[in-house]
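Tokens in:
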């Protein structure tokens, strides 16, 4: 589904990523871990076409998207839940959900308003409320729902539960487990190691813009001390 090969990227003369490679098969949940400032968001921004790579190759559904526009990447089926939520604050919850809704890929059981409301009952209750007045956890539910309304082949979540109250974090993890059960491919950035272990098929760790470790849960358990060294504060 997604293959990143030898990716190099940065901002202006500052290089952030050096030779990053990872891949996601259809139906897999893959994590990208590491301390703040190690290149996780830059990797996501490169995949989504928000910055142009300096080197390497990115392919999605068999098509080369290296340096493609965000619009093209989205139309091919990548949906982003960005760090910092970024709702349309002056639009209502309902308007946020329908603003970019589509089923371009003709999925047989597409996400609709009713399905999102069933997934996140609070969104039904807040349907006519402006997004900017929602609590932080409610905004996170909204942006997850907004991304799902594009019916993505690949859902990318940058800091899925950062700064959320425990009850909201549990709700997000419940939804992600449900999505995995439905076969949704997911690239997930988060710091909750125990939750990631329950959900993910494979893990990648970035350190100073490079993949320094990757493996499945059994590898993570075996290399726990090394892993904690890379992701600890």
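Residues out:
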């Amino acid at each position: 589904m997604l293959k990143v090969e030898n990716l190099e990227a940065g901002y202006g003369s500052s290089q952030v990523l050096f030779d990053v490679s990872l891949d996601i098969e259809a139906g897999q949940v893959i994590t990208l871990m590491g301390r703040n400032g190690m290149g996780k968001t830059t990797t996501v921004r490169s995949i989504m076409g928000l910055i142009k790579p300096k080197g390497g190759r990115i392919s999605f559904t068999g098509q080369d998207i290296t340096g493609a526009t965000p619009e093209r990447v989205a139309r091919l089926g990548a949906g982003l839940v960005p760090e910092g939520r970024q709702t349309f604050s002056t639009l209502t919850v309902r308007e946020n959900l329908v603003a970019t809704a589509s089923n371009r890929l003709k999925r047989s059981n597409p996400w609709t308003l009713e399905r999102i409301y069933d997934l996140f009952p609070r969104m039904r209750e807040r349907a006519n409320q402006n997004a900017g007045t929602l609590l932080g956890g409610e905004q996170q539910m909204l942006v997850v729902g907004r991304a799902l309304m594009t019916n993505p082949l690949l859902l990318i979540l940058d800091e899925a539960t950062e700064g959320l109250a425990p009850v909201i974090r549990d709700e997000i993890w419940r939804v992600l487990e449900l999505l995995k059960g439905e076969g949704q491919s997911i690239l997930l950035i988060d710091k909750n190691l125990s939750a990631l272990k329950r959900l993910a098929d494979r893990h990648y760790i970035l350190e100073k813009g490079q993949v320094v470790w990757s493996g499945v849960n059994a590898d993570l358990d075996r290399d726990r001390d090394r892993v904690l060294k890379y992701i600890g504060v």
